[in-house]
Amino acid sequence: MQPTRTRWFPWLVAAVSIALVVGSVSLAGGFAPADRHARVPVVATGEPIETRNWRIVVHRAVLTDTRPGGGELPEPVLRLELHLTNLSDHTRDRPRLGVVSLDTDRGIIEQADWSAPEPRRVDLDPQVPRRVFVDFPMEDKEVSVLIRTETESWSYADAVATEALGEPVARVQPRIEDERGVR
Amino acid sequence: MTDSGWRSVRGRLALGVCLVLAMTLVLARPDPDRDRFTVVRTGADGWGRTTAFDARIERVGVTTVMPARVDGDPVPTEQRWVVVDYTVRAHRERLDANRLWLITAAGDRYAARPEFAGLGVSLLDAGFTGRGTAVFEVPPEAIAGLTVRVGPLHTDRRPWDVVVEHEPTIEQVPAGTAGEPVVEVTR
Fold first, then answer.
1. B115/A120 CB distance under 8 A
2. Are the beta carbons of B113 and A121 separated by less than 8 Å?
3. Suppose B164 and one of A33, A34, A60, B48 were both cysteines; which one would form an S-S bond, judging by CB atoms 3.0 to 4.6 Å apart?
């Protein structure tokens, strides 16, 4: 027969450990649904933000009803003017959907039209900084720009590396200029 | 050895096998950046010959301003325009011949600029030869050691897993005088 101390000691250690864990969690505020974007660092307009493949500078945000090359748009848009540098090792047409998005009262808006000052196209070469416009079909004045990085995973089945959208790395809260009606 | 002893040994053996398997999978993972095609270098006559097509880089020039196109202005760059004149000859299948790349000494891959896509050869029928120009935008520090790559070119049925590579002599071209590019297709 084992000595009495040997029998109850592991239970005591386990109980104290559980109490310590529960106490620590409780002191830290307990469990709550995580706000995915609450702890994203806020970066000032004009400051560079780096993701896996891009250096992104949010230069300006403007409500406008004019195309970048001139001419009227059918509906006003919220236009971000970005300075983008491709940090990867090959030409890419643009960042994948969701790398640059808007956080609004209605949720995250990812769909946008990308363009570049005429006669340029958006296509982004490695290490070549480029000025681009991202038009979101909306007229909100209270938004923040959410920048997310990309992740890479390896598929043994297809023997290819695939990229996916990763976590937010920065939030920019630009002052939104209103140029609607300015010709 | 007792039954429990054997069970312990078997458990550790299984763990060891799993660890070895996991390490093998990690180490055997192919390099995602590895090129998956055969490279054919251009010969003394300037041509690179493959089973599907032949390609020749005629001239490579560097400038800072591309001449004005129809109804447009000259296009300057803070980087460098690399202007590549090339010829492609299709053998027995129709090719999408407008796939050229510049590879830097560091291994970065630049696609031809879409602003000048009209200067290149696009679809090339079997038996025809096309001559065109591709324009790239590259940082000045990446010019030394550039390689021009033609392909892989796609046919109506499949991409060919072979490319032609050429290490060019690069000419300096005064701004705005890159010459009038010629796009022509001959039989």
1. yes
2. yes
3. B48
State how many domains chain A has. 2
Note whether residue A37 is domain-resident.
no
Domain that holds residue A23: 1-32
Of A90, A119, A126, the CB nearest to B115: A119
Q: Which CATH number fits domain B39-186: 3.40.50.1010, 3.40.630.30, 3.40.640.10, 2.60.40.1240?
A: 2.60.40.1240
One domain, residues A85 and A11: no
- Complex ipTM: 0.78
Establish how many alpha carbons lie within 13 A of residue A95's alpha carbon, considering only the half-sphere containing its beta carbon.
32
Contact A128 B107 (CB under 8 A): no
**In Å, how far are A57, A85, A147 from A48, measured between CA atoms?**
5, 10, 11
Percent of chain A with pLDDT strictly greater than 70: 89
Q: Could you please report the per-residue DSSP string of B26-76?
A: HHHPPPTTS--SEEEE--TTSEEE-SSEEEEEEEEEEEEEEPP-TT---EE
**Domain range summary for chain B, segments of one domain joined by +:** 1-30, 39-186
Q: Kindly determine whether residue A156 and residue B75, on different chains, have CB atoms separated by under 8 Å.
A: no
- Quick check: is A89 in a domain? yes
A-to-B residue pairs, Cβ atoms closer than 8 angstroms: 47
Please list, in sequence order, all residues whose beta carbon lies within 8 angstroms of the beta carbon of residue A50, skipping any fewer than 6 positions away.
Answer: A56, A87, A169
Closest CB to A90: pick one of B109, B113, B137: B109
Task: Inform me whether the C-beta atom of residue A123 falls under 8 Å from chain B C-beta atoms.
Answer: yes
Tens of pLDDT, residue by residue over A92-124, are: 999 999 999 999 998 999 999 999 988 888 999
| pLDDT tens by residue, B115-129 | 998 888 888 999 999
Nearest to B72 among A91, A119, A160 (CB): A119
